[in-house]
Amino acid sequence: EVQLVESGGGLVQPGGSLRLSCAASGFSVNDYGMAWVRQAPGKGLEWVSSISGRNGGPHYADSVKGRFTISRDNSKNTVFLQINSLRADDTALYYCAKGDRGDYANSWLDPWGQGTLVTVSS
Amino acid sequence: DIVMTQSPDSLAVSLGERATINCKSSQSVLYSSNNKNYLAWYQQKPGQPPKLLIYWASTRGSGVPDRFSGSGSGTEFTLTISSLQPEDVAFYYCHHYYDPPYTFGQGTKLDIK
User: Fold this and answer.
1) How many CB pairs under 8 A join A and B?
2) Predicted confidence (pLDDT) per residue in B7-50, tens digit
3) Residue A3 in contact with residue A110, Cβ under 8 Å?
4) pLDDT of A57-95, one tens digit each?
5) Minimal C-alpha gap between A15 and chain B (Å)
6) Residues whose CB falls within 8 Å of the CB of residue B47, separated by 6 or more in sequence, listed in order
7) Residue B13's closest CA among B74, B89, B79?
8) Ramachandran region of residue B34, left (φ > 0), alpha (ψ -120 to 50) or beta?
């Protein structure tokens, strides 16, 4: 069974950093595109970043470009999102999701994890 | 960047009746080389992560009931629920995966009338 479990969220002050993790099981993250999508409290879904499998480059939303970095550790079968220079408007539930088009980054997302909450506040 | 706009923002439909949600993209998401529309639909219930309903604009995801259908091409798309069931109360989002950034629509809230 394919499963995604996010961790690493928490309360952080503006300007701070966090490293979110997405532990995958039931498939190899090296073989599939992976994505992070966030949802601010009471708001809609916002695509944040995607990475293709194998040697594909990452993509970022303009709102996080230069501050967020997506990466993958194949040995741990885990995808990460390093988030720096955090702002109040980064407060959200961060979901990890698996692409379903092989190692392409441009894919529909299925399944999704339960999410990890990031709260940016002083 | 491609902007996805859904309509309406919310709607209420009687049980057993048809529900229709529209999604318009600011640019075509039809890829000419394979004639596929890079468009998906998701359902999100309160307290749950989104669940895939439709991909390639009209292909149902695994286990999705056949009362859910997707249609459209280019820039205009529709999600139809043929006979609304109580468990269909949720938010619905369209999402393009044509070119980054892979944006979502703002969401449509579906309730029972």
Assistant:
1) 67
2) 999 999 999 999 999 999 999 999 999 999 999 999 999 999 99
3) no
4) 799 999 999 999 999 999 999 999 999 999 999 999 999
5) 24
6) none
7) B89
8) alpha
